[in-house]
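Design job #97: recover the sequence.
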């Protein structure tokens, strides 16, 4: 059985470490990208099964990354993950499959990932 690949896009090292450990414990392969440019490069060279995408990043924000990824692969599940609830109102975020507010409790995020990778 091939392991599902998650592309984790977040500019915070602490989030990368926490999420990677949690996702690997769930049996996923995790690719990390720290900004939108790196995320799109990794997305093209090794397409993931799902993307967990931060919104607030330097240079290119997650909404723009989301838009470009959906142009490349419209049916790929992308979960936006942000510390800020208010981005939910942003029309750009509606293109994502789900929007999960960052929290120390990862149950919601993991359940959402399982739903899309089942």
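Job complete. Output follows.
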């Amino acid at each position: 059985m091939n392991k599902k690949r998650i592309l984790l896009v977040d500019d915070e090292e602490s989030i990368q470490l926490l999420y990677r450990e949690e996702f690997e414990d769930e049996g996923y392969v995790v690719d990390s990208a720290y900004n939108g440019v790196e995320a799109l490069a990794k997305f093209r060279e090794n397409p993931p099964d799902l993307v967990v995408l931060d919104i607030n990043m330097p240079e290119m924000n997650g909404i723009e990354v989301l838009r470009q990824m959906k142009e490349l692969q419209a049916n790929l599940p992308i979960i936006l993950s942000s510390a800020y609830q208010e981005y939910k109102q942003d029309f750009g975020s509606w293109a994502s499959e789900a929007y999960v507010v960052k929290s120390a409790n990862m149950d919601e995020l993991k359940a959402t990932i399982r739903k899309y990778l089942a």
